[in-house]
Amino acid sequence: MNASEAPAPLFHFRGARLGHGRETVFPALDLTVRRGETVALLGPSGSGKSTLLAALRRQRETLCAWCPQEQALVPMLSVFHNIYMGGLHRFGTWRNLRALVHPTAAQRDSVAAVAESLGLAEKLFTSVDRLSGGQAQRTALGRALFTERPVLLADEPVSNLDEHQGLALLRDTLHRHDSAVVAMHDRALALACFERVIGLRHGETVLDAPSASLTLADLDRLYLP
Question: How far is CA 106 from CA 79, 193, 223, in A?
């Protein structure tokens, strides 16, 4: 494929300073992510994964389904209502208010379909504060899916799930999006589910390669002291 045939850039940074207020995390970041790519962000805690995800979201917020590490769920509301919040931008104010008090059958069915795909069908009207950590994480993922946007940005979306659940849900989630950038620590999942791996350390990109060219040993080096 020549340059003219390459997919268009989805995200692009050139010499970008990224950080929080006066704190610099990336002093001069060069990075391009193209449409259609699935990218795993790896690196130890504090390496800049969450900072980079937030910057990506700012570039293309209207295209991005967002699943943050802190989940940001409303604990006193049900799984239904928390998942439905992902679609607030798709519906009018009156319809959203009605869904909060008395959802229609169609609204229940559309959210229930997402919940069922995440193994939450029996918890649909259970308040989030009564869920396990894994169930809450799946609810946050469901909210991102219900956004129905083409690009997934997620920060440790399956870290509270066991190996088999995490693999199945991550593959299904990636299948529902055109492109994805996901921060994680699980090196095996990164190699199994993503086409490209970017490794971060101390605010620098120290690895950027196709996953097919990498081994677990290559990724383990990112976490060496």
Answer: 16, 33, 47
Give per-residue pLDDT as tens, 122-149: 999 999 999 999 999 999 999 999 999 9
CA atoms within 13 A on the CB side of 182: 31
Residue 90 — very low, low, confident or very high, per pLDDT cuts 50/70/90? confident
Residue type, 57: R
- SS3 of 216, please? helix
Give strand ranges (E) for 43-96: 64-67
- For 70, half-sphere exposure in the C-beta direction (CA atoms, 13 angstrom radius) is 4
> Residue 204 is encoded by which pair of tokens?
């620098």
The closest alpha carbon to 80, from 149, 160, 141, 139, belongs to: 139
Give 58-64's long-range contacts (Cβ < 8 A, gap of 24+). Answer: 59/11, 59/12, 60/10, 60/11, 60/151, 62/149, 63/10, 63/149, 63/150, 63/151, 64/149, 64/151, 64/152, 64/153
- Per the prediction, the chain carries an average pLDDT of 94
**CB 207 within 8 Å of CB 198:** yes
The pTM assigned to this predicted structure is: 0.93
At residue 166's C-alpha, the angle toward residues 214 and 187, to 5°, is 20
Residues 41/49, Cβ–Cβ less than 8 Å: yes
